[in-house]
Amino acid sequence: MSIILTLLVIFLGRYETDMSSSAQQVKKNSSIFNPFPGIVASSEMAAAVAAPPYDVVSRVEACDVAMDNPHSFLRVSRAEIELPIEIDAYDKAVYERAALNFNRLINSNILVADTSPAYYIWRLSADEYEQTGVVVAASIDAYKSGYIMRHEFTRPEKELDRVYHIKALSAATGPTLLTHKPDSQLCDYIKLLTDQGPIIDITGPNNVSHKIWRISALESINSLQKILNKLPGCYIADGHHRTAAASRLSEGRDSGGGSFLGVLFPSDQLNILDYNRVIRDLNGLSGNDFLRELELDFIVKKLKEPKRPKKARSFTLYIEKKWYSLELRSESIVPKDPVNSLDVSILSTKILEPIIDLYEPRTNQRIDFVGGARGLEGLKSYVDKNNWSVAFALFPTSIDDLIKVADCGEVMPPKSTWFEPKLLDGLISLAIKS
User: Fold this and answer.
1) In the chain, where are the structural domains located?
2) CB 427 within 8 A of CB 200
3) With CB atoms counted within 10 Å of each terminal CB, which end of the chain scores lower, N or C?
């Protein structure tokens, strides 16, 4: 590990404590989760505007989704799809095009700016699954103090991309997924507030229903705000780069720390899928040699058909067009601390680092990540199409593991969790002074 990264780990370890004194002070002196005048998709056009999050689709996929839809929010969140392929996704022209398209949606009343602050309640449901959260302007001071806890490092280039995007639009358009430990008072009050019809009711990708309510009555706002600000703490589940970008933009302001766009869900409603790995090369090893090395710590079995791992400390391997199951041997020693006992950590310490010399996955170009929603076929397709060497499917990290890591002021390895279903971009945005 480099000296700079070591110092960063030390700094963030001190910075991210479980309800540190500074976090307690922020909670005591200010409101954490606030109403705001949202920039909201009109009910008639919401289905056309709504788009997958900018960071879960490739440039090619974004082009395909938006091709026949001039109102798709991907033309704002991934504006490079309207520019020649040789223009880099981080080019200045991309952010200028994003601002142009965002303003066009506003000027056409496809996106409408509310005139007074409100909370918004967002419900996602599919089959028998349902999660309901509150859309808020979350305090950046609370994020900086550690009251809103993180569990991942950010990649500098990805963070800077969101900084430029927010500055160009003067708005945060992608919500951060926040979670809190279950609170019965909040749950009951949300049920009361959603008795009326929603302002948005659409069906998004994967047949997921998205319903949004606007809570604008002053009495309801005040009651909801009191309940939200009694929460003992909350966690970033997904959206670390968006949050870090908003925090960076707030630095040096005289008017306080500012806000970022968040949606608060109770932890017992969140659904985490596996976040899998694909590896470019085996560092000179043959496939057979690699399998023999694995047998030192794992029971390796060839599979007739691909199967996802059924429990922790087991993996599914794809190599040379064959599938294998890997189960960690009982005699293999695994640390008991919250981070190093995670399956994503075991994969690194038992396989990637010692066998193929792959370190620092945040920046290493020999590794990539595939969300569990794409299934095992998505892993196979990535390896075969790109002529990479191997893929690993993992057992999903639990929300309890995420909370334990954050409570200890630690960080997970990159891409440890994949939350599904996804909040859609474009339905609600937060104006931010740049």
Assistant:
1) 3-42+112-271+422-431, 275-395
2) yes
3) N
Sequence-distant (≥ 6) Cβ neighbours of residue 72 within 8 angstroms: 48, 49, 51, 65, 66, 426
**pLDDT one digit per residue (tens) for the chain, 434 residues:** 444 333 333 334 443 434 444 444 444 446 899 999 999 999 999 999 999 999 889 999 999 999 999 999 999 999 999 999 999 999 999 999 999 999 999 999 999 999 999 999 999 998 878 999 999 999 999 999 999 998 888 888 889 999 999 999 999 999 999 999 999 999 999 999 999 999 999 999 889 999 999 999 999 999 999 999 999 889 999 999 999 999 999 886 544 569 999 999 999 999 999 999 999 999 999 999 999 999 999 999 999 999 999 999 999 999 999 999 999 999 988 888 899 999 999 999 999 999 999 999 888 999 999 999 899 999 999 999 999 999 999 999 999 999 999 988 888 888 899 898 999 999 999 999 76
Question: With respect to CATH, is domain 3-42+112-271+422-431 assigned 3.40.30.10?
Answer: no
Q: Are 138 and 432 in contact (CB under 8 A)?
A: no
Q: How many other C-beta atoms are found inside a 10 Å radius of the C-beta of residue 240? A: 20
Q: Which of the four CATH numbers 2.60.40, 3.30.70, 3.30.1760, 2.40.10 does domain 275-395 have?
A: 3.30.1760
- What the block records as the tokens of 395 is 């057992």
